[in-house]
């Protein structure tokens, strides 16, 4: 039986090398703060409890983690005295005796499967589980010192002897502590070392001295990649995107050039969707089955119904709801609008704050004039309506079912269903006038060149 588990996320880092006014753990990867990625991985590993240790003055971090999960407990580490000290800033939850996974808020790629495996080692009786990785560049990391496959100690880089520095099996930082022993182990950590810090990693030697079981697991280097700089952030972003694209393709989504598609942490795409190159998915996008997103589209806060075709070069902004079998073509921007089944908005159009009925056809260059400089107003277009090209629909305005709008109209009044609205200057033809103009212009040209 798995025991209750607490995910204890350390997020008191200063992050000075980010050169940012935003706390480091709030920098987004796939449009989600890094610390929230860690929370999602632990939630996916079914950790029942979650606590986050923040630095002083990091209210923004507290707000973000509570937004992600309202039952998150937060603790403030007022002085940054090391990872062991940071864990004990959350003493009240440590005392509850749950198994603990210590995670870092700036290490967002950790996989829930790894956390599952660590939990299961704790359930099987390990007092300490360490997640190690092998690397060609171990500088700066704590080294896992083993004897005959048994983890004896973690030596921080600063304390390591030259021989120990040759070891390339390193501490990824993520650690499991059994609920039964955690508090005793943590309380036994001292700060007599090169940095004068309380090293969480000392629990390995302490547990060994007590004759408790210590396990080193091996994970991948990328999974424990910590972010300290902006280029590190970009590297983590790239790794995240690569994995997310692969997962989507494995689930039945086609991508012609996967490396050019950018996803958000919450992007949902159903099977048999085809994604052409160069598409950006901002937050909160859902794409229904068999839809097609053509090249160079930008989508956020949008729902695209089954079998719909979007793009190339379309922009769907928050509140866009395309029902099934709709078409949105090139250079079309849609915001806060419902487009019902089978409706088409194919070229050079702005639709904002609108409802477009079933099978309506919105001609090229149609603009919903939704803003009067102070307030936004709504445009309602009925089913099977036909909006002629280059029309301005001045909201608030309602166009009835099956109604026509004559091309080039400025529509300021409602149009009843099945009627035609026309709002433009009447055309007049002047017989022979074309030839007269040409003659006059030719005369002017001749006078100038003589
Ligand atoms: C730590 C490990 C090291 C491991 C490396 C992996 C210790 C003593 N060392 O070293 O073995 O190889 O991570 O990246 O644990 N933090 C706080 N409060 C503190 C100190 C740290 O919240 O007082 C947080 C930081 O925000 C960070 C994490 O703990 O998220 C790790 O701290 P950091 O200073 O980066 O530790 P390292 O020296 O890298
Ligand atoms: Mg570090």
Descriptive labels:
7-stranded mixed sheet; 22% helix; alpha/beta; binds magnesium ion; elongated; 20-stranded parallel sheet; binds uridine-diphosphate-N-acetylglucosamine
What would you say this structure looks like, in words?
This protein has 450 residues and is an alpha/beta fold. The chain contains 10 helices and 34 strands. The chain has a 20-stranded parallel sheet that branches. Strands 5-4-1-6-10-7-11 form a 7-stranded mixed sheet. A 3-stranded parallel sheet has the order 27-30-33, with no helix packed on it. Helix 2 links the parallel strand 4 and strand 5. Uridine-diphosphate-N-acetylglucosamine is lined by residues 10-13, 53, 77, 80-83, 85-86, 104-106, 141-142, 154, 156, 170-173, 199-201, 226.
Quick overview of this protein structure:
The protein is an alpha/beta fold. The chain contains 10 helices and 34 strands. The mean pLDDT is 97.
- Count of DSSP strands: 34
- How far apart are the termini? 103 Å
How much is the radius of gyration in Å?
A: 31 Å
| Number of separate helices | 10
Strand content: 25-35%
Which SSEs are present, and which pair or pack?
Layout (H helix, E strand, L loop, with lengths): L4 E7 L16 E2 L2 E2 H11 L4 E7 L3 H10 L4 E5 L5 H6 L2 H4 L4 E6 L7 H12 L4 E7 L8 E5 L2 E6 L6 H4 L3 E9 L4 H6 L15 H7 L4 E5 L11 H21 L3 E2 L5 E2 L5 E2 L4 E2 L3 E3 L4 E2 L4 E2 L3 E3 L2 E3 L4 E2 L3 E3 L3 E3 L4 E13 L4 E13 L4 E2 L4 E3 L9 E3 L4 E2 L4 E3 L2 E3 L4 E2 L4 E2 L8 E2 L11 H17 L1
Parallel strand pairs: 1-4, 1-6, 4-5, 7-11, 12-15, 13-16, 14-17, 15-18, 16-19, 17-20, 18-21, 19-22, 20-23, 21-24, 22-24, 23-24, 24-25, 25-26, 25-28, 26-29, 27-30, 28-31, 29-32, 30-33, 32-34
Antiparallel strand pairs: 2-3, 6-10, 7-10, 8-9
The protein binds uridine-diphosphate-N-acetylglucosamine and magnesium ion.
């Amino acid at each position: 039986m798995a025991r209750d588990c607490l995910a204890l996320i350390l997020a008191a880092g200063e992050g000075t090398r980010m050169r940012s006014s935003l706390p480091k753990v709030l920098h987004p990867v796939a449009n989600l703060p890094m610390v929230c990625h860690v929370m999602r991985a632990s939630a996916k590993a079914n950790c029942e409890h979650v606590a986050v240790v923040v630095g002083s003055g990091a209210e923004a971090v507290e707000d973000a983690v509570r937004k992600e999960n309202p039952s998150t407990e937060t603790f403030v580490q007022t002085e940054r005295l090391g990872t062991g000290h940071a864990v004990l800033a959350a003493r009240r939850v440590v005392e509850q005796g749950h198994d603990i996974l210590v995670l870092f808020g700036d290490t967002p790629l950790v996989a829930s499967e790894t956390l599952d495996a660590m939990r299961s080692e704790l359930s099987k009786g390990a007092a300490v589980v360490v997640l190690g990785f092998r690397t060609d560049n171990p500088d700066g990391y704590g080294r896992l010192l083993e004897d005959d496959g048994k983890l004896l100690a973690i030596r921080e880089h600063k304390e390591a002897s030259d021989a120990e520095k040759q070891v390339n099996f390193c501490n990824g930082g993520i650690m499991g502590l059994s609920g039964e022993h955690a508090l005793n182990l943590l309380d036994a950590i001292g700060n007599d070392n090169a940095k004068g810090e309380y090293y969480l990693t000392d629990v390995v030697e302490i547990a060994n001295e007590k004759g408790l079981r210590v396990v080193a697991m091996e994970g991948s280097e990328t999974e424990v990649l910590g972010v300290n700089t902006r280029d590190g952030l970009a590297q983590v972003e790239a790794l995240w995107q690569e994995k997310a694209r692969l997962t989507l393709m494995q689930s039945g989504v086609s991508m012609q050039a996967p490396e050019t598609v950018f996803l958000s942490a919450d992007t949902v795409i159903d099977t048999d969707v085809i994604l052409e190159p160069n598409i950006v998915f901002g937050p909160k996008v859902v794409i229904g089955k068999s839809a097609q997103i053509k090249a160079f589209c930008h989508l956020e806060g949008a729902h695209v119904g089954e079998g719909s075709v979007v793009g190339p070069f379309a922009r769907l902004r928050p509140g866009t709801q395309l029902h099934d079998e709709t078409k949105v073509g090139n250079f079309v921007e849609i915001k806060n609008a419902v487009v019902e089944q089978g409706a088409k908005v194919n070229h050079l159009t702005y639709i904002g704050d609108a409802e477009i009925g079933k099978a309506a056809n919105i001609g090229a260059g149609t603009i919903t004039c939704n803003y009067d400089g102070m307030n936004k107003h709504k445009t309602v277009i009925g089913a099977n309506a036909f909006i002629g090209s280059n029309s301005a629909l001045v909201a608030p305005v309602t166009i009835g079912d099956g109604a026509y709008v004559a091309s080039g109209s400025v529509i300021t009044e409602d149009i009843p269903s099945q009627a035609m609205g026309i709002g433009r200057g009447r055309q007049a033809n002047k017989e022979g006038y074309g030839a007269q103009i040409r003659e006059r212009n030719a005369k002017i040209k001749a006078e100038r060149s003589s």
